[in-house]
UniProtKB/TrEMBL annotation:
<dbReference type="InterPro" id="IPR001633">
    <property type="entry name" value="EAL_dom"/>
</dbReference>
<dbReference type="Pfam" id="PF00989">
    <property type="entry name" value="PAS"/>
</dbReference>
<dbReference type="InterPro" id="IPR000160">
    <property type="entry name" value="GGDEF_dom"/>
</dbReference>
<dbReference type="InterPro" id="IPR029787">
    <property type="entry name" value="Nucleotide_cyclase"/>
</dbReference>
<dbReference type="InterPro" id="IPR035965">
    <property type="entry name" value="PAS-like_dom_sf"/>
</dbReference>
<protein>
    <submittedName>
        <fullName>EAL domain-containing protein</fullName>
    </submittedName>
</protein>
<dbReference type="Pfam" id="PF00990">
    <property type="entry name" value="GGDEF"/>
</dbReference>
<dbReference type="InterPro" id="IPR001610">
    <property type="entry name" value="PAC"/>
</dbReference>
<feature type="domain" description="EAL">
    <location>
        <begin position="533"/>
        <end position="787"/>
    </location>
</feature>
<dbReference type="InterPro" id="IPR013767">
    <property type="entry name" value="PAS_fold"/>
</dbReference>
<dbReference type="InterPro" id="IPR035919">
    <property type="entry name" value="EAL_sf"/>
</dbReference>
<dbReference type="InterPro" id="IPR052155">
    <property type="entry name" value="Biofilm_reg_signaling"/>
</dbReference>
<dbReference type="InterPro" id="IPR000014">
    <property type="entry name" value="PAS"/>
</dbReference>
<dbReference type="InterPro" id="IPR043128">
    <property type="entry name" value="Rev_trsase/Diguanyl_cyclase"/>
</dbReference>
<feature type="domain" description="PAS">
    <location>
        <begin position="112"/>
        <end position="182"/>
    </location>
</feature>
<feature type="domain" description="PAS">
    <location>
        <begin position="232"/>
        <end position="280"/>
    </location>
</feature>
<feature type="domain" description="GGDEF">
    <location>
        <begin position="392"/>
        <end position="525"/>
    </location>
</feature>
Length: 789
């Protein structure tokens, strides 16, 4: 525009900070801002000189010097009117600017009738101005449409005439508060048109000073759509509450999906009240150790923001496991982004149990409860398939009971059934959960052992099975002897399909039966391993008979004075072909073959004889420690056997020490307490070996009668060659002393280790640095040289 007309005017909307929201062509012509650049700019930029938005908003505008298009300035009247949102809360301002000489404006013009009318018709809702009597002075076309009244009818009406009778008192009270208290009010009412149509509306208003008087300026927003959405939400909520399936709604929040809603059916199924579940990730109900594959499916689907259906196990608040048929569906916002997931869960535990019961009857032997032939072939084919995929080994063992017909003939078929049930339990107890034990027919059983790490492992497994079967079965006061022949075939060496493996195992079983029972492997390699193991077991028996075993004694030295404080007995085998063998090479086989007890008794006798010889030579106060295994000290009569030896060899109390790894006692604390008490009562000291190798239970150790602890080899070997310390060794030494126990450092091999252990208070030291294990003659010679008494 070339000049600024005195009657020029503009109307637009701003937000709460005075930033332009709407901008029409009239505004663009008057001020020079384009419709594209104006939104977001501050209204105060139009004012010449300093102007602050809070001050303008507080006074409702006023007479100002303003900038117009082309850099021109002129006086103008700025009018600001508060706007309200759907909820009745203040939301932005309407601005009107009128340009006219100050002395030519009438009172009505200063109120802003003409420019304000143009503004209010731009607003989305109804606009009105009331006087104190509640009569309408100013309104927009939207109010006419809402009430279905003409301008003359509105000018003659009171605002309360447009309301439901029950809402008029509240409206009058709000009008009074506006004029007398200056309050800003809002209320939800139903506006009634001349035809009787009701429109839910949010009305809001505030007092405005104009020409020395006050008026109520306000707006109304039609909330029909909001009311309908609220009605639909209430209906949906009632449907969710009434649903028999559990419903969970979660919000996507990084790695977790936080529960925002659960329905009563969920509370009933899971046992958790809504306030106990909301705010948590649904994974808190996961049953540990179950259904890892299904849970990974859920995680992947959530990560990919897609639908998924799974059946897995969850845990109720009570700790009970239940089967959950879960369907998860993503919920997307208006931008297509997934913001929530809806999970519908159904407790299918009863259905699962019925199905499993039927499947069990179809796939299991009714007498023993083991897998039957149908399930065996299925499990075996599955095991072979997985083994092919992963390059693993599967063993098939066929077990046939010896002389089972004689059992039926001698004791009756009821006794035969009892034997079959006991054998089934023993076989099941001897294998892992991942393995399969099946009853093939009659007295014939088949085992499928998956993920076999080595042939030697399979060999030990077969021997364990054989030993589990040889114990007699009690029936009717009789002890029924049980024996079995076992044939073993291995995938992939002996066959690539299940049926072939079973045939090979069957042939191996008959070969075993023809050779007096026991275990026989189908392959030549396994046959050699079996023969070697049998030879080693025979060799152990021969070693005991031909005095091939012998003891060496390694001295324990006083850490400070260097005196001999005792000995540890160490077992060796002088093998006719392999030379001197350490215990690690044959004790495991001795355990498996049942010869460990005989070897242990021999070692105890030899150690006691050595102690007696030392005493006879005048060397007293030098105890000898003997390592014993769990198989030895857990047998009945172990302590009484030691007491008998002490008496037989005339040993002083405390001269014999029994050495047991700390971890063995902690794993069986009841046995540990009983053993330590019984040993103390017969005058035998208990020494804890491998102290600190695993987890130590200080409270439990205080309950034991222990003389000393021996640091684990790992703790001693941590001490570096240059003498830098081992925090573990120092901690264990302090811990042993806090328990009032002597601390022995064994496997000492370097001067740095000696110096460190001495400097930190270790009581005794043992290892190659001081002396290798000695024969009895060498022990006597060493003691004589040291003149030890």
């Amino acid at each position: 525009m070339s000049t600024i007309e005195p009657s020029a005017q503009a109307c637009f909307l701003t937000d709460d900070e005075g930033k332009v929201v709407t901008w029409n062509p009239a505004c663009a012509d008057l001020f020079g801002w384009t419709p594209e650049s104006a939104p977001g700019r501050l209204l105060t930029e139009l004012v010449a000189g300093e102007a602050r938005w809070p001050a303008l908003a507080a006074t409702g505008g006023g007479r100002l010097r303003m900038r117009f298009a082309g850099g021109r300035e002129a006086d103008a009247t700025l009018g600001l009117l508060r706007q309200y949102g759907a909820g009745g809360a203040p939301q932005g301002w309407s601005a009107s600017i009128a340009i006219a000489p100050a002395d030519s404006l009438s009172e009505a013009e200063r109120i802003g009738n003409t420019p304000l009318a143009e503004v209010v018709d731009l607003l989305p809702g109804t606009f009105y101005a009331l006087n104190r009597e509640g009569r309408l002075l100013l309104w927009n076309h939207n109010l006419e449409r809402l009430t279905e009244m003409t301008p003359d009818e509105l000018a003659a009406a009171r605002v309360t005439d447009m309301l439901e009778p029950r809402e008029r008192a509240q409206a009058l009270e709000n009008i009074r508060r506006v004029f007398h208290e200056g309050a800003e009010v809002s209320m939800e009412i139903s506006c009634v048109s001349r035809s009787g149509r009701e429109t839910p509306t949010v009305l809001g208003g505030a007092r405005v000073a104009c020409n020395g008087d006050h008026y109520l300026f306000g707006m109304g927003i039609d909330i029909s759509r909001r009311r309908e959405k609220e009605r639909q939400l209430r209906l949906s909520e009632r449907a969710l509450h009434a649903a028999s399936n559990g419903i969970v709604i979660t919000r996507c929040s990084g790695r977790d999906n936080i529960i925002e809603y659960v329905n009563p059916a969920f509370e009933h199924i899971a046992g958790y009240a809504a306030d106990e579940a909301i705010g948590r990730d649904p994974r808190f109900m996961a049953a540990p150790g179950f259904d890892a594959h299904e849970r990974s499916q859920v995680r992947q689907a959530i990560a990919e923001r897609r639908q998924v259906s799974v059946v897995f196990r969850n845990m109720r608040k009570s700790g009970e496991i239940f089967w959950n048929d879960l369907r998860i569906t993503p919920v997307r916002d208006e931008h297509g982004e997934v913001t929530h997931f809806i999970g519908i869960l159904q407790d299918v535990t009863a259905i699962k149990q019925r199905t499993e019961h039927l499947e069990h009857e179809v796939n299991h032997d009714p007498l023993t409860g083991l897998a039957n032939r149908n399930l065996l072939w299925d499990r075996l084919d599955h095991a072979v398939h997985l083994a092919q995929r992963h390059g693993a080994m599967v063993a098939v063992i066929l077990v046939d009971l010896d002389n089972f017909k004689a059992i039926n003939d001698t004791f009756g078929h009821e006794a035969g059934d009892v034997v079959l049930k006991v054998v089934a339990r023993r076989l099941q107890a001897a294998v892992r959960d991942s393995d399969t034990v099946a009853r093939m027919s009659g007295d014939e059983f088949v085992l499928v052992l998956v993920d076999q790490p080595s042939v030697r492992f399979t060999l030990r497994m077969a021997e364990r099975l054989r030993q589990a079967l040889v114990m007699p079965v009690s029936f009717g006061g009789n002890e029924i002897p049980v024996g079995a022949s076992l044939g073993v075939a291995v995938f992939p060496q002996d066959g690539t399909v299940g049926a072939e493996l079973v045939r090979c195992a069957d042939m191996a079983m008959y070969h075993a039966k023809g050779n007096g029972g026991g275990v026989h492997f189908y392959s030549a390699e396994m046959r050699r391993a079996s023969e070697q193991r049998a030879a080693l077991a025979d060799g152990i028996r021969s070693a005991l008979e031909h005095d091939e075993l012998f003891l060496l004694f390694q001295p324990r030295m006083d850490a400070l004075g260097g005196q001999v404080r005792g000995f540890e007995a160490l077992l060796r085998w002088r093998h006719p072909r392999h030379g001197i063998m350490l215990p690690a090479a044959f004790l495991a086989e001795a355990e498996e073959s049942g010869k460990m007890i005989d070897i242990g008794n021999w070692v105890l006798d030899q150690a006691c004889a050595f102690l007696r010889e030392l005493r006879q030579l005048g060397y007293t106060g030098l105890p000898v420690s003997v390592n014993v295994s769990h198989r030895e000290y857990s047998q009945h009569g172990f302590v009484s056997g030691i007491a008998a030896r002490i008496a037989r060899y005339g040993l002083a109390p405390g001269s014999l020490e029994i050495e047991i790894p700390e971890g063995d006692l902690i794993r069986n604390p009841v046995l540990g307490r009983e053993l330590s008490t019984q040993l103390r009562e017969v005058g035998v000291a208990l020494s804890l070996d491998e102290f600190g190798k695993g987890m130590s239970d200080i409270a439990f150790l205080r309950q034991l009668s222990v003389r000393q602890v021996k640091l684990s080899k790992a703790a001693v070997h941590e001490i570096a060659a240059e003498g830098s310390g081992s925090p573990l060794a120092k901690t264990l030494i302090d811990l042993g002393h806090n328990l009032d126990l002597a601390v022995v450092g064994e496997a000492v091999e370097t001067e740095a280790q000696v110096d460190f252990l001495r400097s930190h208070g270790c009581d005794q030291l043992q290892g190659q640095w001081f002396s290798e294990p000695l024969a009895p003659d060498a022990v006597r010679q060493m003691l004589d040289q040291r003149h030890h008494v």
